[in-house]
């Protein structure tokens, strides 16, 4: 029995995902090409490889209770000086991401875990690079915007080479995307989702 390092995230779709990945590499972040552009729901977590079927079953259940929601990225933020990260902000969809990550990490599930920092959904565009490059990332992406309907999330595994690879996608069980980006029909969500 061995262990694997997994993560759960919402992929930033094309063309935005590749664009932000290339920008991240351009700022000097050596890990950029091994990390698909994403919003984290479960940070890197080491698990027994034999636990993967139970984890996939759990994630299937989480996805079945969710429904598509509008995602919008807009502008930049940073966790400095607490953590050496510059990110693109989530202007819409943060509440749904917060609900999802709680379900993924639920104490009754197979990947229950505490977080090092309070959950703050974001898209990392620079991590652990020099301050001047962090400042450049913060400034150059300050006007960045992207929107899409989020229809699910995926399970990833980190290889021995440090590259994250998708194992499986999980599509939400409900099919309705809110008709307006600024309107969420709270009555159709499971209790506590938003």
For the structure shown, list the relevant keywords.
194 residues, alpha+beta, Cyclic Phosphodiesterase, Chain: A, four-stranded antiparallel sheet, 4 helices, Phosphoesterase, Cyclic_Pdiesterase
The CATH C-level class name:
Alpha Beta
Determine the fraction of residues in helical runs and give it as a percent range.
Answer: 10-25%
**How many helical elements?**
4
Average per-residue pLDDT, rounded, comes to 90
Q: What's the story with the biggest beta sheet?
A: 4 strands, antiparallel
- How far from one another are the termini? 39 Å
Name the helix and strand elements from N-terminus to C-terminus, one letter apiece: EHEHEEHEHEEE
Protein name: Phosphoesterase
InterPro entries: 2H_phosphoesterase_YjcG-like, Cyclic_Pdiesterase
What can you tell me about this protein's structure?
The chain is an alpha+beta fold and 194 residues long. It has one domain: Cyclic phosphodiesterase (Cyclic Phosphodiesterase, Chain: A). Helices cover 24% and strands 34% of the residues. The protein is built from 4 helices and 8 strands. A 4-stranded antiparallel β-sheet has the order 2-1-7-8, with helices on one face. It has a 4-stranded antiparallel β-sheet with strand order 5-4-3-6, sandwiched between helices. A hairpin with a 5-residue loop joins β7 and β8. The longest helix has 14 residues. The protein is globular. It starts with a strand and ends in a 23-residue tail after the last strand. The C terminus is likely disordered.
